[in-house]
## 1
Amino acid sequence: MKKTLVRTYAALTALIAMTMAVATPAQAALQVDITDSSQSAIPIAIAPFGNSGAALPVDVAQVASDDLESTGLFDVTERRNMAEKPTNANEVNYQTWRSSSVDNLVVGSAAANGQGGYRITFDLLDVYQGRSIASFQINAGRNELRDAAHTVANLIYEKFVGEKGYFLSRIAYITMAKENGALRYRLIVSDYDGNNPATVYSSRDPIMSPAWSPDGTKLAYVAFDINRGRSSLRVQDLASGNIREISSREGINGAPAWSPDGRRLAMTLSYRGNPDIYSYDLTTNQLTQLTNNGAIDTEASWSPDGSRIAFTSDRGGKPQVYQMRSDGSQVQRLTFEGDSNQRASYSPDGDQITMVQKGGNGFRIAVMDLQNNNIRIVSEGPLDDGPDFAPNGQAIIYARQGRNNELATVSTDGQTRSRLSQSGEVREPAWGPLGY
């Protein structure tokens, strides 16, 4: 029975080794490409922002445009197709924009704020009404212009979508590539769009399962020591780089998941002989066993209110998603469709889970509504893995395996897709908190 669970750590380590045998060196940053957009995308243009002095080191308007375009929810006019490039509302010829079928226009400028940084002001204009519907002002340090651009996009996104934007969030992921004839594994943290990548941890041995702390200051992950035949589950502080070893017991030490309050980690341990889910109190160091079953229980995920834990188990014969109370009681099976379901993760509102479903088209990303148990497939397969919700619940990041292994994002309704590509292997994505 235990051999039926795809995500056993021995099997996955072997898979990593095989796929990396032909990998090429990874590039420094991911590149975002839009593959599918919503048919009801909002037409908008963001004109180049003006400035009162030297050219800005960051093109704020272009970064904000790229942010909105990446969601597939906005149809952003390319700069080369703009008939004019106003920097304030008084310069706008609304008739010109109406004839270009642009419903919404953003105009703005940046000026020194007298504190070594910039003051960015911009207006969101309704082209057909010929008026401003919102005005904003942002102060940013000299080295904070890219964050300021993401803030511009967040404000626009929230105005139209009614949800907070995720453009200040970060992602963690693992790259695997040959360097100097040997494999090198890197745990990388970057902006949500792949910019500003920074290596958090690097090793000749595999790294797996990064998981963000709720406040975004730490990552839990699993590091292997092949020579010793051991794995260790760790928590690393991103600011200081300090690493705290949580478990390096015999057998599996894997699949860490943070409780919403950041006080506990759920994890899979097998030092007692069978892979079960445990809860570890980070303050008291107390370890509590939550499952005790002859099957493999793994891949825990906490609900946003901390009351429930979803997990993968093959206790029914094949990997399926189960749910229990956070104390291990009231276990119930959630999934019945498809050949198998695993790697569940709750949406930020707790109303949905995303998971990997195996069916006729291979392994694809699915979303299940916990109110009515309806399931929809949102990715194309055939080897999709590691889904994780965006911090606002509007999109899902996952890994696409195959000829070109890469990360991808998809809207929860499956209509909008983009990919974050680079040469080499990119796996195990985890989406951090909103960032503001």
## 2
Amino acid sequence: MRDRAARVLEANWTGTSTVPSRTLYPHQWSWDSAFIAIGLRHVSSLRAQLELETLLGAQWGDGRIPHIVFNPAIPLDAYFPSPDFWRSSTAGRAAGAPLTQQTSGIVQPPVHALAAWLVHRADPALSRERGFLARVYPGLAAWHRYLLHRRDLGGAGLVCVVHPWEQGMDNSPCWDAPLSRVSPAPPRTFRRADLEHGAAEDRPTDLDYGRYVRLAMDYRDRRYADGGGEFAVEDPAFNALLAASEHALARIACELGAAGTARHARAERLTAALVERLWDPEAGLFFCRDLRGAGGLIRERGISGLLPLILPTLPRDVVAALVRTACGPHFGVGDRVRLAPSYDLEGPAFDPHRYWRGPAWFNTNWLLERGLNLHGEHARAAGLRAALLEVAGTSDFAEYVDPYTGAGCGARGFGWTAALTLDLLGPREGTL
């Protein structure tokens, strides 16, 4: 398993970064690279460091880390939206987009400081010799500053996503209500390259895709200025990952000889705001909050609502309720499914194969496994780890799988599936 997973990452390595998939995703993706670096640290600490350094090399002046860094050697028609859609160097000029490197203009979940800390811990001698943490810390600090100051659109201390692709769980039913207000771009204005590499029944519908394109076009046409769009959602997983990465950034600061107390305190405030704004004790789950329309909670059960389990100071009653929900009828961990689904097994929109509307993903299950271990649920975590390893192997490191059967969907030889397999096989650390 270790050798097979390492070969996937070797095949996807470009010399400076790792593509998620040579066919479906032939560029560098932001949160993919963070998860890939976490796995690469068990194979090559140097490559893991380069993975994150390459991504940060495309950071914008306002601090955002774009969700795609485009490889200029890849033909424009290999992926849509392509660089000529985003127009980052022109439309993003006011926000400090790189002039010589093409990127997208939206972001993805902030796993990067957490990844940098884990990469450092894998080989502290090499990290210190190369000045790795000193090299990445300013960019990571600017990234968090951008999110905390430019994306707190609700004014209550939580970060907003302004496009479903930013949260990473692109096609989740959690977005259906806020997306229903968006007029889709006409089909003739875009070409779906994803359907050339994946079955249409596993991918977003044309209607949903048209809405994604419309939101991205509008954001681009506003010169990537935050706050004016039709879509603004506070998401539990995005904010939990930011809080976990704030804890990691505090540890990085201490390693560099600075105080980390303020960053730990900021992570605690994010945790408290999560509970205050998004926790529903009756449901035993965190929900997204829609800041447009009526401005209330979106009562769709997505796996995002379980992922605050990665936070070390989550109240004990919240932890206990999340574990019950994870193992209950809506997610079925340890009983009804092989891996936790991306969406409520009993929800009206559940589909075991369609992108983020029910299939199980390795990164979310890896986070859930870490959260269970963190809060002392070691037997449940061990069961989930065993299932992850088995399904990764039998599915040929699939992008995502049927939660009931483990049958692979989407791309095979997928970057973060292989990387997180390596991490599950490697030495485990007590906390994220």
## 3
Amino acid sequence: MRLRAVALGIAASVSMSFSALAGELTFWHAYSGQQDKVDFINYALEEFGKAHPDIKLNVVAAEQSSYKTKLNTAMASGNPPDVFYTLPGGFLGAFVAGNQMYSLDDALAKDGWGESFLSSALAQTTMGGHTYAVPIDIDSSVFWYNKKLFAEKGWTAPATYDQLLELCEKIKADGLVPFALGNKDSWPATFWFQYLEMRLKGSGIVSGFVAGNADATLGSEGTEAFKRIADLSAKGYFPVGFNGMSDQEANMLFLNGQAAMMLNGTWQIGASADASDDFELGFFPFPTVAEGKGDQSDILGGVAAAFGIAEKTTNKEDAVTLLRFLTSPAVMTKYVELRKTMVTVKGATTEAAAGPVLYGISNDLMGKAANLDPFYDTAMPPKGTDTYYTSLQGVLDGSVAPADAAKRLEEALKAK
């Protein structure tokens, strides 16, 4: 078997040789640009090659930001990859609406494969009663901080939003940046808006829009959420030039102790693996917001990635074989071990593989949350996501008023 990796917008090439070929598949993924992702996909594909030397994979790898554009272009041109990484919600939904996805219903019904997934995760890749992709991981977003730095400075993790703002002033007075944020690719700032909307109004807002609920609305809370984000930016709580800074660059500020906190996903555990010995990663939930109408225990969390098969794929049997292998318990437990991210396969997020921090989030936060609200940007249809990103960028740099951003976003979510 031969795996050929082609980089899209990045310099990356991997070649591994195995034995003779009987089938061939194009396989696209977005696991480039972050070492823990690269380590996982290399492991998984090498092991697949050993188990199935008769299947040839032509692999295309890209970073998340460029991948979406490349995949959308390929799908629109009628030349999709056979097996590919996709996002749940609106991103996947656009392909389903275009009859471009192969239904996995029959395959999932065989040998208990479908039963091996968490039902709440599989529901996020199921549309119109049919499942079109297998969910891989579940991410949640929390505040991260350096426990040793906080102890040294005498700072404590805040329980309320007002306490968080008070802490920011102390951090600024100490010459540090309160929050690491690199919003060049737009998605990192989305956690701020979603959590504020969840705390102020409640969970399920965007899911209501996507489901076609005529009563769905951001409400006045949408404007208030954008306003609070604008205030954070105006007060200098983010790094200078954060809208042009990558998430990786922001992470370095956090790991180097130049920024005290970071609102980010559970992948931050893997991203912190190379921190210095005096760095000890801690976490706390997004604080409660006074007079907020939402359940203050709710957690932003949902399926972060999935893999599907194109309807045009001629070699569907081998394509299903690849998906079954990628979601096998052994491979998924290795995913947890390498990426420190929770997975959708039952029993695969073991304490030994997850480590104390991730296991703590799984049990202490997600296990006690009243609701898990799926990531807005993956739940929205693509046009809604684009408006979401540009509105947030504008609010953060002061070029878009909070009320205008809320209006634009609601109109985009209501558009058919």
